[in-house]
Design goal:
Chain lengths: 113, 110
């Protein structure tokens, strides 16, 4: 069975500090991977997607970057956090090129102070 | 402009009542999905319904492409159905750009 694990569960970071959030998918080769973000009380937005190792497409510009260093790993990062980066980050995978079948991680709650 | 509009914003029902959630789109789409967001935030896919009517257990979704709308009907609601229901669409298949609505917060009371 496939599993998706996000880390960390929660983070409290200072403005201007770096950030790295991770997502690992086990049990599925070559999944399509996605990052989403939801500000507190806001609408969920898709940030990035990746269909293969080393290839990441940006959907929304939020001064964040994403990388896929391995087939089963998706990393979201920034060198300098902003207050506006606070919120809930979700990683998901799909076995297809379309997002019509998505499996989500438990999410990471980020507070930037 | 908000591409995906959901209504109502919140809905309070008694257990066993039926719930009707609505979603409308600013553009034509045949890639419509419904999700359930648990109180802790985790998202669960409920139904992918590009057109027509689809059913999964107590959930029934109807999407009318030419009217740019979709609905989600929850029959015989249970307390555990409480949470936020999100509608989302892709402008075209394979576009890899999923756009979400703000959601309907459903509260089921005993």
């Amino acid at each position: 069975a496939q599993t998706i694990h996000q880390w960390p569960v929660a983070e409290i970071k200072a403005v201007g500090s770096p950030l790295s959030l991770g997502c690992t998918i086990k049990g599925k080769s070559s999944p399509n991977l996605y990052w989403y973000w939801q500000a507190t009380g806001g609408t969920l937005q898709q940030l990035f997607y990746s269909i293969t190792v080393g290839q990441v497409e940006s959907v929304v510009q939020l001064n964040l970057s994403a990388s896929r260093p391995k087939d089963d790993q998706f990393i979201l990062s920034t060198e300098k956090l902003l207050l506006s980066h606070s919120g809930f980050y979700l990683c998901a995978w799909s076995p297809y090129t379309s997002q019509n079948t998505l499996y989500f991680g438990a999410g990471t709650r980020l507070s930037v102070l | 402009e908000q591409q995906v509009q959901q209504s109502p914003a919140s809905l309070v029902l008694q257990e066993a009542e039926n719930a009707e959630l609505q979603c409308s789109f600013s553009i034509f789409t045949n890639q419509v999905q419904w999700f359930y967001q648990r109180p802790g935030g985790r998202l669960v896919s409920l139904l992918y319904n590009p057109s027509g009517t689809k059913q999964s257990g107590r959930l029934t979704s109807t999407t009318v492409i030419k009217e740019r709308r979709s609905s989600l009907h929850i029959s015989s609601s249970q307390i555990t159905d409480s949470g936020t229901y999100l509608c989302a669409m892709e402008p075209t298949e394979g576009a890899d750009r999923l756009t979400f609505g703000k959601g309907t917060q459903l509260i089921i009371q005993p």
